[in-house]
Amino acid sequence: MPAGPPAAGREIRAREDRDTLRFLTCGSVDDGKSTLIGRLLYESRLVFQDELARLEADSKRHGTQGDDLDLALLVDGLQAEREQGITIDVAYRMFSTGRRAFIVADAPGHEQYTRNMATGASNADLAVVLIDARKGVLPQTCRHTTILALLGIRHVIVAVNKMDLVDWSREVYNGIVAAYGDFARRLDVTDVACIPVSALTGDNVTEPSAAMDWYDGPTLLQALEEADVSADREDAPFRLPVQWVNRPSAGFRGFAGTIASGSVRPGDAVVACPSNVPSTVRRIVGPDGDLDRAGAGQAVTLTLADEIDVSRGDILASAAEAPGLSDQFACHIVWMHENPLLPERPYRLKIGTRVVGAQVTAIKHKLNVHDLEHAAARTLELNDVAYCNIGLDRHIAFDPYKECRETGGFILIDRYSHDTVGAGMIEFGLWRGSNLTPHPLAIDKPARAAQKNQKACVLWLTGLSGAGKSATANAVERRLHAMGRHSYTLDGDNLRHGLTRDLGFTAADRVENVRRIAEVARLFADAGLMVLVSVISPFRDERRMAREMMEEGEFIEIFVDCPIEVCEQRDPKGLYRKARAGRIRNFTGVDSAYEPPEKPEIVLKTAEKSVDEVADQVIDYLARALDS
After folding, report:
1. Domain limits for position 99
2. CA separation (Å) from 560 to 197, 472, 554, 611, 622?
3. Which residue among 115, 313, 362, 432 has its CA within the 20 to 30 Å range from the CA of 227?
4. In this predicted model, what pLDDT tens digit does every residue of 573-609 receive, in sequence order?
5. Are 147 and 114 in contact (CB under 8 A)?
6. Preceding omega of 596 cis (within 30 degrees of 0)
7. Are the CB atoms for 333 and 424 separated by under 8 Å?
8. Is residue 1 part of a domain?
9. Would you say 341 and 422 are in contact if contact means Cβ atoms under 8 Å apart?
């Protein structure tokens, strides 16, 4: 049972009917977020007796308050957090009062865990930003506030904490309020309420403070109870991302999901996106039966008056206010991974229930979260925030993030590791995505290849410098020429004198280098040619991207496998010697990684076989694979 006076059963049942506010606590490290949430839980009398007993024991073992309860331990549940006295992951807690239920996310304050904070903020209706009265507005305070603004948090409460440690100074409080207000206004964050508190002593948390009689505003709990966030999603147009097609029997076909915004009634005109096929809502089925109305946040199944094609990932939307359609966007991206974002590298993008291929086509500028200045950038590192253009492999339905989070917010996923590497917020669709379509040509690839009496293919030779890629490609093309085949070789070194001469050897430039070469190889294959590509291409992701540009069976990956010791002994251009001496930076195999193919079609052991032998090996493979 809860500590303190027990709540009556009817009071508990009444609380279950209260609306729920999801809010986030954030700020710099050691600003007192966990202690503040612990205070709210404790004084709401929702700490159960066994949990209270455990808290008392843990306070003696791990706590920082001597013989008193360390309320932060109610939230800092991970052992590593308790040992270090910090919050690492986002911790979620629930509590309620007579007026409202709350789900609070306690975000970590350390800069390296900013990605966790962004995760917690993505589902919040309101944010409580804590500021240590002794330290004032810190860089991490600005970083968190910037992310809140980008993530569309419209309601912010600034809790100026630890006022007991500055002698309850009104002047200190006013100075912090002014500094934070100036920064927030530059981000167009205008709904800001400021409250001086002491989470440790409880002043102005749930009860007014006698020590700060100069403050006559609400307590933190009052401000949370009175915050009006109900209209944020209800007033938006109706959107239902389809989670699955519900077919329990042959006579029922419904589309299940959680309503992202707006409301819907039977008889409403809707449209399925991205197909733009219209229909009308016939029934709204909830957990307990049919509903006359459903709104944002409710999980429902809709049946339609027409048998139209709707699948997982589609969006059912208001026909009068349909979402946009595009495959290119301007957006903000918060980068969340230790490996940098590389423009043109392929990623997976998940928006709502749909997953598509994506590439960041341009980083327009990186945002300095301390002074909000714009800076040029070619890559993004962990916790960077940037304004970018992004392109997808197909059209999707979307809304600007500021209008609907669920249909305007997305995550980026690494295609190889499946890690979530970034979070994005769509600003608007780029017009090219909606207005450019491929022009059909009268003569196609099969016709061009048939004219040459061959099958088009791309022979992609990858390996370290000095492994023998160019020599092998030359030998293979001589044999193809003698056989009457039509071929062309794209050699990486030759292309750097023209097509890619503006690129260096950073990871970002290597990605772009491979992308350009792959695009040219695709065009040459479309012309019906047998294309040999000789390029180091060190990263698996980019070689996979090149493969996916081609038709099934058309891309043949050839791993020119030669130990680096042998490559260095050969060193035909003296590059390894220069790299070892520090005269060349980002040299593959020395100070830049090479990722060997995992399942290449051909492996050539050039340290063990002659050029003629490995060339014959390639020709033999082509005879089996293409002439069969």
Report:
1. 9-227
2. 66, 9, 19, 11, 16
3. 115
4. 888 989 888 888 889 989 888 999 999 999 999 999 9
5. yes
6. no
7. yes
8. no
9. yes
